[in-house]
Amino acid sequence: MKKTLALLATVVIVLAGVMVVRAARMPSMQGPAPDAVAPIAVDTTGAAEHLGSAVRFRTVSYDNGVNTDTAAFRGLQAFFDSTYPLVRQHLQKEFVNDLSLLYTWEGTDPSLPPIVLMGHQDVVPVIPGTEGDWTHAPFGGEVADGSIWGRGSMDDKVSVISALEAVEALLADGYQPGRTVYLAFGHDEEIGGLQGAREIARTLQERGVGPIDLVLDEGGAVAKGLLPGVEGAVALVGIAEKGYVNLELLVEGPGGHSSTPPNQTNIGILAEAIDELEEHPFPAHFEGPGRALFDYVAPEMSFVPRLALANLWLTKPLVEHMMLGDPESAAMLRTTTAPTIIEGGVKANVLPITARAIVNFRILPGETPRSVLDRVRSVIDDDRVKVSISGGDSVAPSPVSDPGSPAFKMLAGTIRQVMPEEDVKVAPYLVMGGTDSKYYAGRSNAVFRFLAAPIGPDGLKLVHGTDEHMSVEGLATSIAFYQQLIRNADGG
Ligand SMILES: [Zn+2]
Prior knowledge:
Blueprint: H1 2-25, H2 44-56, H3 70-83, H4 85-90, E1 92-96, E2 100-105, E3 115-120, E4 143-144, E5 147-149, H5 157-172, E6 181-186, H6 197-206, E7 214-217, E8 222-224, E9 233-241, E10 243-252, E11 256-257, H7 266-279, H8 289-297, H9 303-309, H10 312-324, H11 327-333, E12 336-344, E13 350-351, E14 354-363, H12 369-380, E15 385-395, H13 406-418, E16 425-431, E17 447-449, E18 454-455, H14 459-462, E19 469-471, H15 472-489
Parallel strand pairs: 3-6, 3-7, 7-17, 8-18, 9-16
Antiparallel strand pairs: 1-2, 2-6, 4-5, 5-19, 8-9, 10-14, 10-15, 11-13, 12-14
């Protein structure tokens, strides 16, 4: 007995020692510090006014693409022409599908693969009745309290304005890119990008453009205070995005009078099917792109969380359990299941002949809309419930871009160069929503999603929410980032 205890104690001590050593030795993934660059002068006041002006054009995308105010888009585009005269003079501007914009800044060396800088002109609507809740009018574009306020200030006119400001400044400097730079600004990202970004990508493909060296779109930001255990700023660069599929669950059967119901009604059958789905969530995949975030962030964490993450060989079940307990982190590990619509019945004393639900799934890379459909059918396992893809509405998850690639390293170096005082750490992550960059799958191995502006713990609520605003400082950093990125893409 004594011997067993002594052995056990030795094992525990050795294990603890191994864990501590592993945590202490965890190598940083940040790589060597990039060459310092001289601070980039940005006309911050002018740029803030420009973003404010852009917000004032109500380029709203409504569901189903109806009621598009084309005059607002044309107004925004005329504003670009008048505000960025050098862009107008030196870049070739094309309209794709009438309202999307494709600018070509021809490089001096046509043999070099090009880069594509993306953004979208459209915004989501302001929910009717909430206009009065805004501190500043939602389409006022006011510059106040160190921020530009209004719908689109963050999502995503800041990207469009930053890219245009950067190119205008580089042109004023006499800069000529070595490789061709495309600016691709879709007009319907908020409703899927089918008419805009998809057509721009197709246009480039038809012209034989590619492979593309770097595609950069919205989707990540500089997180401050978002990740537990990390004190400083973390630049989250999206390396992949989830797909989605809406599945319809339909139960049809005899109706009748509610006074003589069968043991299980159509509504009961449907409810049971939904319950089965929630009881059997999709399996967690710890080794996917969600994991990449930890590999990069863990070495920068305080000791206790680092102890856990450096020893996943032992702690994985615990870490996974904790992550699955929180909806935000759970979504990084698995395909999510969200019943969003349920209907059935018209009258209190009539049994409905149909009961129907829509369940929205956000699909992890590695799975497909089809594999989700198959799994849902087998989980429900009830012939009375017809499961189908609702309205053909599905998008496959994107491929995963390599955080070890030269393009990622160049991007990471640029981020650190333009934010030297922040000691920012760069980390890859999985984007939960969808962006227009999905249309470049197969056209480039380096599709990344990032905006070089800080986002606080409340930042995500502002996107599509009330009081959306962008800090003037963040806008300035974003402009400097695009300038440096274009230079670095040419080798610095
Ligand atoms: Zn957006």
